[in-house]
Specification:
Blueprint: H1 16-30, E1 38-41, H2 47-57, E2 64-67, H3 80-91, E3 101-105, E4 108-111, E5 116-117, E6 126-127, E7 134-137, E8 140-143, E9 168-172, H4 180-187, E10 192-197, H5 208-216, E11 220-225, H6 241-244, E12 247-248, H7 254-264, H8 271-280
Parallel strand pairs: 1-2, 2-3, 9-10, 10-11, 11-12
Antiparallel strand pairs: 3-4, 4-7, 5-6, 7-8
């Protein structure tokens, strides 16, 4: 076992270039015959985004495990040491191969695709709306389900062919929403905007013509939901997505929709292809 520091950045300050740098290093390590798995220590704020990015772009069946801790080492019942030990167990185990990027915390193994930080004050913060993949107890893995979405070796994306990521922004929508953020993101050069809407990614009536106008200028509109535990946006429900040439994020939350859109836009700008990608990943 050996370690290295790729960079040291507070997770809330991670940028796209950091993700690309990390993924390229993980990809290079995964190609080495003397590497069985990779553990990445990470701040909790954007763990789910990094794990999903790695899940999409690193072409390996070796375990990639992102680990974080909710409590500092100086606190009572600090969780960092055991989380790290469990992450090492998982990364080194043959039965974790082929399951994509994983997040290991609180004795639980979650898919990097599904997992989210659901609360900010408890060690069980990381959960998936569709359930954990498994758990690790005293160095042994127990698996409960499989991930049906495309990832890693079955992904059409490869970090070795990605240089920079296009700009994709998130606009949060609730009551009394206006078009300020949407127009500002468009003016800043965004290639897509994730509409983080209530319910089924609903769009306020006053916003509809604004988003139609932005789509007409070439910017992709992707409807997602900011429902806390498993928002599911159904195409052509609430809004006529086919008519407006908008995209739905399916069950991805806004931050993960941003990651997938950024990756997908490196290979296509076609809205139908982008929608296919959102359904498959």
């Amino acid at each position: 076992m050996r370690g290295e520091q790729v960079f040291q950045v507070a997770s809330e300050s991670l940028r796209n270039d950091n993700l690309v740098t990390l993924a390229k290093r993980v990809s290079a390590l995964a190609k080495q015959s003397d590497v069985d798995g990779i553990v990445i220590t990470h701040g909790t704020d954007t763990t789910e985004e990094t794990a999903y990015f790695l899940n999409l772009v690193v072409k390996t069946d070796k375990p990639i495990v992102v680990v974080a801790s909710m409590r500092p080492g100086t606190s009572i019942s600090a969780d960092g040491t055991l989380n790290l030990l469990n992450a090492i167990y998982v990364a080194g185990s043959k039965d974790a191969r082929g399951k994509g990027a994983l997040v290991v915390t609180n004795d639980t193994i979650n898919s990097g695709r599904d997992v989210s930080k659901m609360i900010n004050v408890r060690p069980d913060a990381f959960q998936s709306p569709w359930g954990a993949l498994g758990m690790v107890v005293e160095g042994k893995n127990y698996w409960f389900r499989k991930l049906d979405k495309r990832h890693t070796t079955n992904s059409e994306f490869d970090i070795d062919r990605i240089g920079t990521l296009p700009l994709v922004e998130i606009a949060y929508a609730g009551g009394n929403v206006n078009d300020t953020a949407y127009r500002a993101f468009a003016n800043a050069g965004a290639k897509a905007i994730i509409h983080a809407g209530p319910g089924n990614g609903s769009v306020a009536g006053t916003l509809v013509p604004v988003l139609q106008d932005l789509r007409g200028k070439g910017l992709h509109i992707i409807r997602s939901s900011h429902v806390n535990n498993g928002g599911f946006v159904i195409r052509n429900a609430e809004q006529p997505d086919d008519k407006y040439d908008w995209i739905v994020a399916n069950d991805l939350n806004p931050q993960k929709a941003r990651i997938l859109a950024s990756v997908a836009l490196t290979s296509t700008n076609d809205s139908k292809e982008l929608q296919r990608i959102f359904m498959e990943y």
